[in-house]
Amino acid sequence: xxxxxxEEIQKIVEQAIQDGKNTLYEGKVASYIPxxxxxxxxxxxxxxxxxEGEIYASGDYSIPFTxxxxxxxxxLILALQTAGYEKVFSKIGMEPTGDRFDSILQLxxxxxxxxxxxxxxxxxxxxxxxxxxxxxxxxxxLVRRLCGNDQIWLNENVYRSEKKTGTRNRSIAYLLKSDxxxxxxxxxxxxxxFRMCSIMVTAKDLAHYAMxxxxxxxxxxxxxxxxxxDIVRIVKTLMLLCGxxxxxGEYAVKVGLPSKSGVxxxxxxVAPGGMGIGTFGPMLNQKGNSVGGxxxxxxxxxxxxxxxxx
Length: 310
Ligand code: GLN
Description:
- This protein is an alpha+beta fold.
- It contains 13 helices and 10 strands.
- It has a 5-stranded antiparallel sheet with strand order 2-1-10-9-8. Strands 3-5-4 form a 3-stranded antiparallel sheet. Strands 6-7 form a two-stranded antiparallel ribbon.
């Protein structure tokens, strides 16, 4: 990239932040996990990282927040690495639901197994497939490697807050247990799930992770394959189809990048050609997706011509 091009991209990033700021009034911070209600509603940040090592960033891109549902992508990688494709997808489907992320509806009505690993029911079963003596430690190790940040940590307050109040997730886990889909002790699986949701990342960390996914799982700096290409393909496809919950279709039309959101306010988006994007903005829309983050990604997708099908 020439200096001119780099300056141009940085300008677009600043523009995206401005566009994002103009949408914040439409959102609300998540409050169903009491600790998340403390988020600063004016925070907004974005970071882009390329495989050549270029970084473009603006706003609150280095403020840590809880990864929440973005953990579903990391846990799917770990489950596929340890339990394998057959086992994981014998228990979880690959179809979008059109329902809320914490819905229980389809489990009784249509199928006994969760529709996909990007909703809570699917992610709880994914967690149960991570059959390792130190499941959370292995998870944290993987996240740190993929984000290129060995300082990523567990926020005990958020973890405890969610564990105490997570009655809906508890209902999902016990229902799955009663149908024989969930193996193991529901409380133990939930404990792992809550911990995985409560690690602290930044938009910069997510940009690095997305860059690795865009680069087919290979770390361009050390030249090491961190995640098998097959697994990367599965995760990115499910992100595109189901990563934004019951807004995945609309988001795919407007942004067109495999992405995953979390109620902590993060979005990770995989752009083509070795480019990764992370955004942070805790003001959420009714579906639980960051309003500022989504607007930033719409601007970037349009101005940098990133839409997969454009
Ligand atoms: N920890 C949250 C929950 O299970 C994650 C949900 C989300 O980010 N959408 O409810």
